[in-house]
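ok here's the first one, seq then struct tokens
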Amino acid sequence: MVNEKALLLPLLFFTTVYLFCIRAKVVDTSYYGTFWYASEQLTGDLYGYFRMQLFVGITILFSIYMLFCILTGGMKLQKHKVYLPMAVYAVLVIVSYAFAEYKNVAFLGANSRYEGTLTLLCYMLILFYTMHAIRSEGNVKCILKGFGVASFLLGIWGICQVMGVRLSDLPTWLYVPADLREAADISLSMDTNAVNWFFTNQNYTSFFMVFPICLFGMACIAEEDGKKKLLYAVLTGLMLFCLWQAASLGGMVGLAVAVVAALLIAGKNIVKWRKSLGLLFLAGVISVGASLPVIMREVKSGTNVEASVKADAESLRFAKIDHIITDGADIVFSFEGEEVRVATEKGEVTAVTDTNGKTIPADNDLLRTSGYIDEETGYHVVAVETANKEWLFIVEGE
């Protein structure tokens, strides 16, 4: 017989300890050697690579164990129609990799986003594993409790981040190997006091937060025990507080869509669930009250971005770019057969001319140009803005 508790180990790990697992690594740059990437061969990674290694390693190890149990008769292979779309997905991932131009990126993923072919196939493996490892309602409750504890700890860490505690304030031995501690520069490009938990940035965090909010909200509704119902409501409120404080409009919009969908699905059950929904509403009101300035700032910034994009679209017309050529210190753009040359000298734009050498006015409808010195790197930068993108060029020597 197969030990059910042993089968749950990887699932418990992924829903608890894994959420806190970060480790500084020096890895090969995924893009190194490509003509459009001019950085070094090695790059530092804190959030993605170590987690990818853990996920792939544990998934493969326990999948082999489960396969052994099935082959030796210790457990039966479950029959599910979902195997077909899983297989189709896996085949398409492999085909995509086979036809990929940049194999190293396709296999492991991009810098800081190690979700390439290997990880995607492991998603299917862990799904298959979960379908066989979860064998009772008790298993589900066990995982839910573990995830609840992990989410509570993340929520406390989120409160600490709001109060100004940063990852760099924690002991470096927790996440930086001894041989990297002197060279490692742990700096986060987050908004001041924004909640990002242990993700690369708060945008990823906010989208993830929608999941525990929905999960604990449903658990609050389904739970009959009054104390546990209150506990799930508190957890939901804590996750909502972290979502608002993540200062990411994307997660807020995602939650709004989830709530609307939930209300449509619930239908008449809303009346039956009024006590639970009242608790959740109270948790939501308290979390909003504690985060109102952040919410209003994000809503306002989203409106400003929309207005800015609209203004850019009106002032610069969309034209297909045939090619971009750097000719010495000059940059040549070709828009649907019409060439525009941006001449520069020591990082400053000196002239913008058409194919015939005629000067193009600064208020033209194809592009805008500017030159400046990047304060952080000291590079001379030439920025060329088209209708849908800003192209940045570094000027070195000639």
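and now the second one, same deal
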Amino acid sequence: MEKQTGTRAGSGFTLVELLIVVGIIAVIAALGVPSLIHARRAAHSASAVSSLRLIHSSQYTHRNATGNYGDLAALSQYIGDPLLRAGQKSHYAFTVTPDAALPSEDYAGLATPADPTTVSTWRHYFIDASGILRWRSAAPADSSSTPVDQ
């Protein structure tokens, strides 16, 4: 039998080759995970904006039917999404409050981050009878906050 020289006894990867592959995967993950987190936050934010627009539309339907703006419970018949009717959707908590003095004139709708650890880093949203959707970062939004680009 002839002995072959210059070949490995076993066929497989060396430890160095495996470490290089693991290192490359770690670099790719380090670059991709922040982008994934940002994309998820943007999707939750877009869902909150969409939900507040639905609330605004439902408010006008409710006002035409009853003469006054309503809270989330009163709007539940116009909102098909059970999560939104319950006041929680896409990591946001929703509250809708008709103006106490003039319920036929105004209301305030808020979308606030539901997780207390994200309150300071996520956007907060506000809408009222004017239909202008507004946002503020790290604090609850109100009628003086920055308008969302329509």
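notes on #2: The chain is about 40% helix and 20% strand. The helical segments are 15-66, 72-75, 82-86.
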